[in-house]
Amino acid sequence: MRGETIVDIVFLLVNIVILLAIMGLLIWMQKKHLSFSKRVFTGLGLGIVLGAFLQMTYGTGSDVLEQTTDWYNIVGRGYITLLMMIVVPLVMVSIIQSIINLEKSSELRKMSAWIIGILVTTAMIAALVGIGSAALFDLNADQIEAGQAENERSEMLESTLGEVEGMSTPGKILSFIPSNIFLDMTQQRSTSVIAIVIFSLIVGTAVLGLRRKDPEQAEMFTKIVNSFYAVVMRMVTLILRLTPFGILALMANTIASTDFAGILELGKFVVASYVGLFVMFVIHLILIGIFGLNPLTYLKKVVPVLSFAFTSRSSAGTIPLNIQAQKNSLGVHQGIANMSASFGATIGQNGCAGLYPAMLAVMIAPSAGIDPLTPGFIVKLVLIIGISSFGVAGVGGGATFAALIVLSSMGLPVGLAGLLISIEALIDMGRTALNVNNAMVSGTLTSRFLGKLNLKTYNDTKAIEKDIAV
Questions:
Q1: What is the pLDDT of residue 193?
Q2: Whether 347 contacts 391, CB under 8 Å
Q3: Fewer CB within 10 A of the end CB, N or C, for the chain?
Q4: CB-CB contact of 349 with 122 (8 Å)
Q5: Distance CA 269, CA 257 (A)
Q6: What is the percentage of the chain residues whose pLDDT exceeds 70?
Q7: Is the pLDDT of residue 338 over 70?
Q8: Is 308 in contact with 437 (CB distance < 8 Å)?
Q9: Residue 6's pLDDT is what?
Q10: Backbone angle region of 60, left / alpha / beta, with phi > 0 → left and psi within -120 to 50 → alpha
Q11: Which of 76, 191, 119, 87 is nearest to 434 (CA)?
Q12: Please, are residues 447 and 336 in contact by the beta-carbon 8 Å criterion?
């Protein structure tokens, strides 16, 4: 027994040394001034290789693998934690700073309306895509055999349903309004980011009004905010430079811990989900092209952000990288970038609040004796998804919350959603990337509509490296 423990420790140390060696390679690439995107993709690729090596060597559930992923989490989850740390000050100060630099307060209404309109509209389109994908692959909950994990998940969902059913649409909208901004700064609510945005909008609007009555005080506050904004953005830059290391560790852990047997068993559901996600990505690019922008240029500049979103499964954690990419790479107006990234983390999420609940509804409906392809069912489902797409948490688990709302509103058994627990993490990676992409699309298109998009920056292929690469 003692010998096995020593062997386990040796294997653990070897795994840690391998990670440190790869991180050393990434540091060397940085010193050689290789581009930020190359370092990100190197971290992503080597993370996949390392994760596959760990999976094949130790197997799912082994003690060595579990301890290894715990140590790797210092780098991977630690990076996400740093990003979450900066989200609140970034959202707050960037929105306030954007508003007080606006020439007219009417611009704020236009920006907000366009951003939210695009987010919710595309969520409803995503619902239609989800319905089509589920129908194309003939998904049916009766085809899945429930094991212990699935049954436990189903029981948990049904017990959570009471909380969701007690939240009416007016109550949900009311939850956006911050009653204690310090509580929302801790991000304890699923709508905390929206509450912070609303508080920041009120502060910024108050400063605009103060300029007319007491310009001296307004000017002093503006200088303080601008200084604080500069410091926060510098913090963001320092943290974002750790992205290749974070992606390396996150992807290694994801691959190493994946239940490939469960994926093979539910292969059709995985394929159907990713077909739907791919179609929505294409629709996003088509929207970019329709409004006179090069979709390939857009894609090249957002891929590093999407890579992190994919590996982290956190829309909220991706906010800093999202804002930085929109502003510095795509030429999106600063205020629009701030709001689209913040709103997009909780409103109109195409993957978690649009595509996924729609696919679940179509999959589960036959077990309840309902034909999901009738016009009445489809129209009702799309409308419910549009309304319920407000306030979905921008972290792992937000899709479950959205699914509970949609399924209960459609009168479908929510417990059957637990049948997909073995592939939940894999699907959630793609959903999160789609959510983040939709936020960037909404910011880019809103800037384009309002004539605030810097086309020179958008078309500059090297703009992606500004402020991050060193």
A1: 76
A2: yes
A3: N
A4: no
A5: 20
A6: 84
A7: yes
A8: no
A9: 86
A10: beta
A11: 119
A12: yes
Phi/psi at 5 (5° precision): -65, -40
Of 442, 241, 454, nearest to 341 by C-alpha is: 442
Longest dimension (CA), the chain: 78
Could you tell me where the DSSP H helices lie in 353-423?
A: 356-364, 375-388, 398-409
pLDDT band at 424, cuts 50/70/90? confident
Task: Identify which of 107, 38, 104, 430 has the alpha carbon closest to the alpha carbon of residue 438.
Answer: 430
Find tokens 């939709």 and name the residue. 438
C-alpha to C-alpha distance for 110 and 192, rounded to whole angstroms: 23
Element (H, E) at 460: none
Which amino acid appears at position 74 of this protein?
Answer: I
CB 385 within 8 A of CB 352: no
Identify the bridge partners of residue 347 per DSSP, sorted by sequence position.
Answer: 390
Q: How confident is the model at residue 145 (pLDDT cuts 50, 70, 90)?
A: low
378 token code pair: 């489809």
Are 91 and 197 within 8 A, CB to CB? Answer: yes
Query: For the range 297-303, what are the long-range contacts, defined as Cβ-Cβ under 8 Å and sequence gap of 24 or more?
Result: 297/458, 297/459, 297/461, 298/330, 298/444, 298/458, 300/461, 300/464, 301/325, 301/329, 301/330, 301/463, 301/464, 302/329, 302/330, 302/437, 302/440, 303/37
By the 10 Å C-beta count (0-12 exposed, 13-18 middle, 19+ buried), 414 is classed as buried
Residue 410 scores a pLDDT above 90: no
How far is the C-alpha of 416 from the C-alpha of 393, rounded, in Å?
21
End-to-end CA distance of the chain: 49
Q: What is the pTM of this model?
A: 0.82
Six token digits for residue 409: 């509103």
Place of tokens 């797409």: 389
User: Is residue 24 a contact partner of residue 39, using CB atoms and an 8 Å limit?
Assistant: no
CA distance 73 to 18: 14
Beta bridge pairs of residue 390:
347
CA dist 394 and 91 (Å) reads 14
